[in-house]
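Sample entry (365 residues):
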Amino acid sequence: MSHDAMTPDSHDGPDGPRSRRAAKPRKRRRGLKITLGVLVVLLLAGGGTAYWLYSSLDGNIKGVDIDKALGQDRPEKLPTAGQNLLVLGSDSRAGAENKELGGGGDVSGARSDTALVVHIPEGRQEAVAVSIPRDTLVTRPECVKEDGSTSPSAERVMFNSVYSQVGPACVVKTVEKMSGVRIDHYMEINFAGFKDLVDAIGGVSVDVEEPIHDKSSGLDLTAGTHKLDGTQSLAYVRTRHGVGDGSDLGRIGLQQQFLLALLTEVKSQDLLGSPTTTYKIADSATKALTTDEGLASLTSLSEFARSMNGVDPSTMETIMLPVAYDKTDPNRVVAAQPQADDLWKAIREDATIPESAKKSPATGG
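Predicted structure, serialized as tokens:
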């Protein structure tokens, strides 16, 4: 999101900034859409593709040379650390479809609307997805921009601003600096790609605990089970006015629920057994997918997907980075200590995450 993530934007009401009680960081729903799209691509890529389709899918994938941009100034890769993916949801308004799905408005460029660190332990039996609230204040390290210029380090910048100001490589570096976790791979998916992916799957079923009526996103759901198409799913992961206190932190809970529902849908349909459906889904996903150079080919994605065959969505744990409301600006959050350090330590060491490290002082309602 933009610099005004916690201040009035095109979706805010006429009363302007919310009070301290209501000004808690708004829930972020898009984070899941990205994680979902990324993981589905990984799962599907392992299904095998006829050579005559290979070049089409392979050409869809865009690559970013993260390793070259970061150099040697990175956390050590421990031999038993498993695999760590940084998954970003881009709210780029590039193109008519993305602009329409993004909610319209005069918005240029792209921003990381959601971010998750997906940790896959050794053995590939389980996975953990850690959501980083976009309004978290962080120290952005010195980074090299895509044009070769250097962006100096800066303190107390909003996490989601790093992407728009410096680029994806700097987001990776920021996450590595704040966590000490070596990021092995990077993945990004945009609005339109998420919508097309869900439609290709045939929709995703979600259980709605309380009615959701959000005029901003256009989402109108009664309590109960609903099968959502791509447009509805996008609204579901983006809604903030329709649930809880309207904060980004609360929306993360919905995103995590949808992530598991999407992955479960993929597993239940046995999509890998249907080449036609598999191609349709893979085509939609890869068109919207940007990865690090190490995964920027169908072959690489397939190999990585095969290593994840044992991961069951029902065993995936979803956690929000423990955060507390910033004492200076209640519209922002900061990593809560010692919980955040304990969480990252467990991921670095591929160890069990302590229950205490999963509790966040700022919950978003």
